[in-house]
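Chapter review: from sequence to fold.
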Amino acid sequence: LLSNAINYTAAGGRVDFQVDQLGESIRFRVADTGIGIPQADIPKIFTEFYRADNARRFSEEGTGLGLAIARSIVDLQGGQIDVESTVGVGTTFTVLLPVPARPDEQLEEENDDQVAAASSSPQPIEGSSANQLQQGGNLMVIAKPALQDRQAVAMAAGQGSLPELLAVLQRYGELHGPIRKGKGAVFAPISSVADLALDYGTTVLSPKKYLLQPMETLFSVRRRGGFQAEQEISAKPQVLFGVHSCDLAAIQLLDRVYGQGSYVDSYYRMRREATLIVAMTCTAPPYDKCFCGSMETGPSPRGGFDLLLTVLGSDLLLEIGSDRGAAAVEGLGWPRAADHLARKENAVKEALARMPRAMDRAGLPQLMNANFDHPLWSKLKDSCLACGNCALSCPSCYCYNVIDQVALDTVSVKRTRTWDVCLLMEFAEVHGGNFRKDRDARLKQFMYHKLSYWIDQYGAFGCVGCGRCINACPAGIDITEVAREIRGVAQ
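The token string follows.
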């Protein structure tokens, strides 16, 4: 809005910018004494690529996208944008955005809503997870006060608390969790407690694949006299068990992209609404590439989960974060926990102290934007292979490609959606050329989207500190080192 006001105001004119609070909203006002907008054009100015005739005559530069993007951002924030204009006099844009709740207020509300409960009969846990779940493990349940009546009766944990918990969760839907594979772990269906790797560092691909599938058919069309379209949007209930805090933060970012605003993705929304998330606090020695602590996405989530599991030596702590989570474990009935919440906080502090990497986020988007031509980019251009591993493994990347697959008999066609990444040469190919052909431009797009552009689009960093991109890069490019060098801090 400011750049438009300056661009369309002649020399000697005036541009005013005002910010104040109006009730429960923050009001931004941009007023200029520029060329103004004809009344007939005002309903169209928020349309992509539209420019009024007098704007085209005044300046050939411009794409007609600025106001469309501004309106999209305002809509995503639940706000309102209005315009008043008179040709030859000037234009005033007014934006109203709701005042957000302070993070500490939200945290206090979450904490006030929690009560604790614990089992009275410890039982041994069998399987390869026994190194963390030793004999004598208890299962504690934290319930909201409104749900306390459901948990009122104390009862024994039975034969092994973890198998019983999984059996209860299986009533909701198919179980998926971290399963041992080679030296690591992958998210896959849980067939046995012995397969679980609760001490895993990270997985190659995040649980994102259960919500935004790497490849899926959107619809198919068959020619039968005329054309018959077939589309099936459905989702089976599923439980994502043992989701790390960073991956949960990434899912919450994807919710902003695919599940909110003016354009909601029905495929994503159906799967998301059918998914019960059992998050897990990282109390084991942290993965050597992670830096979730400095991104404030871990090692334990503050919310966004249905259930939260924490391993405390020989005990398990389970916190309920939603009505759906409470309903899923209804019938366990363990009484309140004792000092387990305090033990959890101590375990989180210890995990933070062991975190091997960190990223200083203070003013980082501004620093990135001021260093678009930093010598670092030329240096990284020579080492980056543009393989796309970083973006493909990223839990918050959301770009995709759409492909129409025509059968050889030309009778039917399928439209499929597949993950796509900005590091690949083909990503930016359009009619007439490639707008991001150079390798350094593609690498910068990935880095800037994570550390700057996401802030402008959705009000949060696009990086959650999981470290997958560092581990997946064959050239050894480290996003934390990139941020550090841009800041000018010696290694």
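Two observations follow directly from the output. The first strand starts at residue 15 and ends at 22. The CA atoms of residues 37 and 54 lie 8 Å apart.
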